[in-house]
Amino acid sequence: EAYLACQAASIFLAMEFNKLAGRPTGCATVEFCSTSLLQFNARPAQPFFIQEALLSGNFEKYNNNSGICAPFPTAHGTMHEAVQAFSHWTYLVTDKSLMVVDCQGCYEKGSNKFMLTDPAIHCKSLLRFGGTN
Questions:
Q1: Could you tell me the end-to-end alpha-carbon distance of the chain, in angstroms, rounded to an integer?
Q2: Within a 10 A sphere around the Cβ of 121, how many other Cβ atoms?
Q3: What is the pLDDT of residues 45-72, one digit of tens each?
Q4: Following DSSP, what letter does each residue of 59-125 receive, concatenated?
Q5: DSSP state of 2
Q6: Quick one: which H or E segment has residue 32?
Q7: Model's pTM, two decimal places?
Q8: Residues 38, 16: Cα–Cα separation, whole Å
């Protein structure tokens, strides 16, 4: 439940970030994979699992949940200022109550977007988004 709440909040915040007026021309968008909670009855001990779309491209970690950012550019040559700006923006737009971190995924050059997965959220409400808070 906490994982899905974290993913849903990150998706919503990314959509709002991408709508911002005054974004620099050519600035990459930030998106998170949609997730589904599935039940697999043949596995009674662990009947539920989460499914995401398969990402294509070079998987990279742009920041983590302890404050470390990947170098500019990354080992694959990716400039990821938009991802760092997104993380910082989430802190400011929520009146410093939460911040989306642990941003990782793939940069899709053709569509100029970062497709991210498995975020963590640091939140003042320590139990709200699970153990990575």
A1: 14
A2: 25
A3: 888 888 888 999 999 999 999 999 999 9
A4: -EE-B-TTS-B--SS-TT----HHHHHHHHHHHHHTTTSEEEE--EEEEEGGGTEEEEES-EEEESS
A5: H
A6: strand 29-32
A7: 0.90
A8: 27
